[in-house]
Every structure is written in C-alpha cells, then in structure tokens.
C-alpha cells in the first residue's frame, strides 16, 4: 500500500485534484471532527474538533450491520474527546486505525465516531459535507467484504 501511495503522490497529478477542483489528499481542509490516531501504536486516540485546520486524514467506508456499534452521542462526546480506547472499537475500526498509522497519517474519519449520532442538526450538517469529506481524504479505506464492523479489513 505504501508503494502504491508513493507512486500516486509522485506521478498522478489527477489524483491531487477533486471533482470540485480543490487540491485534495495532503494538507487539505479537515472535516469538523476527526479521530486523532497519531503515528504510533502508543498514541492516545481521541476525537478532535479541527476548527478549520488543514492536514491529512483517511476515511473508512464500512457496513454498520444490524448490531449497535460504538458511536459518538451527545452523552459521550466529552469522553470521546478525552480518549477512545482500541478495546472499545470493532475490528474493522481497529484495522483501519493501524493502517492509517502505518501510512503515516495522524487522523481518520469514521462516520459513527465523527458525527454526533443523536444530534439531528450535527447529523444534517455533516451529512451535507460527506461528499467533500471523502473527496478530500488522502485514502478511503473500504471495508467492503465484511457483514458488519466486527469483520475487520482482512
């Protein structure tokens, strides 16, 4: 994966411009919230409000499945901003975080964590931005073979 990304970074000019014409991938406008994962397995993972910062992030596209999964709600938003332990996260999220760290990207956007799920206004605002969130992402990790978020990437 790292070799493919290096080739894309150095030779694929078209990959660096989104459909909107904006430069995407590295040092782009960040979504409202991202999960900070750092660059090492020991980094403290926490939900971060970006407040218009620029940077690099990945996105995870996954199947929720029929069972409840870890979500950010109004009740746990403050806790998630303090830290989100890997032991609380399903396998697909865990794998995506490890992949994000492996490629040297400090943030990941996961819908169930980065959108306040029980806040209709936040959900509507973030849903309107979802196309841009995926477009600006350095890499979208697609967990397409699993039946739910517990399946993992591999």
TrEMBL record:
What Pfam families does the record point to?
HET
Q: Which InterPro entries match?
A: HET (IPR010730)
Question: Which spans are transmembrane here?
Answer: none
Enumerate the spans annotated as Heterokaryon incompatibility domain: 57-153
Q: Which PANTHER family match?
A: DOMAIN PROTEIN, PUTATIVE-RELATED (PTHR33112), HETEROKARYON INCOMPATIBILITY DOMAIN-CONTAINING PROTEIN (PTHR33112:SF16)
Q: What is this protein called?
A: Heterokaryon incompatibility protein-domain-containing protein
């Amino acid at each position: 994966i790292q070799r493919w990304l290096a080739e894309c970074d150095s030779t694929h000019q078209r990959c660096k411009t989104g459909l909107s014409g904006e430069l995407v991938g590295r040092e782009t406008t960040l979504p409202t919230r991202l999960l900070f994962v750092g660059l090492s397995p020991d980094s403290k993972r926490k939900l971060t409000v970006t407040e218009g910062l620029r940077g690099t992030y990945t996105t995870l596209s996954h199947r929720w499945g029929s069972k409840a999964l870890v979500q950010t709600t109004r009740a746990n938003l403050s806790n998630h901003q303090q830290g989100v332990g890997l032991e609380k996260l399903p396998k697909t999220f865990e794998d995506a975080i490890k992949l994000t760290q492996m490629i040297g990207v400090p943030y990941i956007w996961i819908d169930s964590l980065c959108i306040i799920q029980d806040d209709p206004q936040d959900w509507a605002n973030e849903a309107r931005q979802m196309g841009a969130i995926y477009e600006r992402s350095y890499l979208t990790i697609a967990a397409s073979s699993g039946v739910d978020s517990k399946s993992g990437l591999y």
